[in-house]
Amino acid sequence: MKRRNSSFIKVLFSLILIVLIAGTAFIYVSPQFEKNSPVVEFKENVYWNLRDKLTMNLLDDSGIKYYKITFKDGNSEKVLKQEILATPKKSITLELEAPKFNMFFKSKEVSLIVEAIDNSKWNFFDGNKTINSYKIKIDKKRPVVEIISNSYAIRRGGSAVVIVKIEDENLKDAYLSFSKKERFELIPFYKENYYMALIGWPVTLTEFNGANIVAMDKANNFSQTKVPLYIRALKMRKSNIKISDSFINNVSTKVIEQSAETIPDSLEKIFVKQNDLIRAKNVATIRRVSSDYMNKDRVDNFGIGVFKRLKNASTAGYFGQKRHYYHNREKIDEAWHLGVDWASVKRADIKTSNGGTVIFNDYLGIYGNTIIIDHGYGLQTLYAHTSASSVNVGDSVNKGQKIGNTGTTGAVLGDHLHFGVLIQGVEVNPLEWMDKNWIKTRITDIIKDAKEVIDNK
């Protein structure tokens, strides 16, 4: 009898053990008993202007059943949001508004305390809990922007300079917005909190919608200040160019092939693709290279002299020409010419007028073999259609140094140099930068006056 009882007890013990093991295994593997705490998606070290809403996400696989967001300022606390959810949610997006303050609120830093509990049966059916604390930096002040000096006027296709003072302890971004279309970076100037920008009016922009200094801090406080500029019209030139079958077959086709593009099935389509699509890609490359590799070192003095024309050359093309292209007496396309063309002897020497750094030296579609030199200040020069170069990317070049020879690479009718002046990638009128008096009165004197103003502050 005792032996039978002993066997029964062993069986019972084994069954209980199996149940316990199975129950424990079920708890550990069952989604209802998941052990992961709720996740809070929120950036660390946030700046808050107390006007905008802060966005916060709460996530949990079993669903959030309760959350509470507390705003803590010193010893005082205010609940921003609190909710018990009848139906738990796996994802909750919260838009947090600042509490109301009295006029004596001066805190520069507060805390957000986030408490969230999920719908898991873990922790004896109480669920998993997350409690996080986030430091919030308070900044309600807009950046202070002051125009120190600027060029009196700007001509369509031309250039100007602006010097400004921007003060904000949490400054995030500042730039010059031209006609709401172009962005020009500000370069540190002379002393702390001062900046300058050379700007260019793209000849392709027919309307001028103002120039503004835009500044934004880390708390999303925003300032916009108008630059007082008078505008001048550009005397437009128009030219009609006949495109032959031979040019399309021997030049346009070659440009498309060397640009790794497919050749269209008709002569007109071939030319239009070369003149539109390839041109647009080339201009985009110029913009990117100019922006990415321009020198942004602090400017103390302006050391740019006049740019000189190719020696013993005649002008074959003007800046701002609106070129109309005809094939078999039918107009098939049009485009702006954004530099000056100089024709001399074949393979004429190309020399620099100002020192700088080579930031591009490669084949560039319609421009052919092209060299771009950065001179600082956001100012670059472009030399296109070259047959040979004697410099490499990264080289420093001196005034009067030979950098290459003219040629017929790209979309050209004959040997010549296409010379362009760029301001942060925007091609501007080279004739301004070839005029000693223009550089002095429109650029150098403005910078000199700004330094005097700054020194007297």
Walkthrough of the structure:
Helix content is 19%, strand content 42%. It is an alpha+beta fold. It folds into three domains: 31-138, Immunoglobulin-like; 144-233 and 446-455, Immunoglobulins (Immunoglobulin-like), CATH 2.60.40; 237-428, Glucose Permease (Domain IIA), CATH 2.70.70.10. The strands form seven sheets. Strands 18, 21, 23, 24, 25, 27, 29 and 30 form an eight-stranded antiparallel beta sheet that branches. Strands 1, 2, 3, 4, 5 and 6 form a six-stranded mixed beta sheet that branches. Strand 10 and strand 11 (182-185) form a beta hairpin. Helix 2 packs across helix 3. The radius of gyration is 34 Å and the shape is elongated.
Secondary structure: elements and pairs:
Blueprint: H1 2-29, E1 39-41, E2 46-48, E3 54-73, E4 76-96, E5 109-118, E6 129-138, E7 144-150, E8 153-155, E9 159-167, E10 171-178, E11 182-185, E12 187-188, E13 194-200, E14 211-217, E15 222-226, E16 230-232, E17 237-242, H2 245-258, H3 267-293, E18 314-317, E19 321-327, E20 330-337, E21 340-343, E22 349-351, E23 356-363, E24 369-374, E25 379-384, E26 388-389, E27 396-397, E28 402-405, E29 417-423, E30 426-428, H4 436-455
Parallel strand pairs: 2-6, 8-16, 17-19
Antiparallel strand pairs: 1-3, 3-4, 3-5, 5-6, 7-9, 9-13, 10-11, 10-14, 12-13, 14-15, 18-21, 19-20, 21-29, 22-28, 23-24, 23-27, 24-25, 25-29, 26-28, 29-30
The CATH architecture of the largest domain comes to Distorted Sandwich
How far apart are the first and last residues' alpha carbons, in Å?
110 Å
Low-confidence stretches: none
* Count of all domains: 3
In CATH, the topology of the largest domain is named Glucose Permease (Domain IIA)
In CATH, what is the class of the largest domain? Mainly Beta
What gyration radius follows from the Cα positions, in whole Å?
34 Å
Count, helices: 4
What structural class do helix, strand and pairing data support? alpha+beta
What's the shape?
A: elongated
Give the biggest beta sheet: 8 strands, antiparallel
The proportion of strand residues reads 35-45%
